[in-house]
Amino acid sequence: xxxxxxxxxxxxxxxxxxxxxxxxxxxxxxxxxxxxxxxxxxxxxxxxxxxxxxxxxxxxxxxxxxxxxxxxxxxxxxxxxxxxxxxxxxxxxxxxxxxxxxxxxxxxxxxxxxxxxxxxxxxxxx
Length: 126
What we know:
The protein is 51% helix and 6% strand. The protein is built from six helices and three strands. Residues 116-126 have low confidence and may be disordered.
């Protein structure tokens, strides 16, 4: 069965996020580090993998510091992806309809004030 999406690597996601948050174009970041804009593009599109020292340099040029620590493995995303792969088209349609219905819910508190967050009061579907 075909996977619905192929997630990009952590390094590609970090680099793209840092660049976008700093407001830099690929060319501007490339100029700061002394590489070509096509290399930045290849890293962000996950066509090439930077070494850790290169990734650190790229992130620093965008104004960010890379910090790493070890955590126990969390299979949450993998489990969700596998569940999604086994859904029938009808199940996906029903899920999408349920999610849309929840997005349209307006929560109100005990005083009848609308709130964008889940409140302990009642809620109604507009």
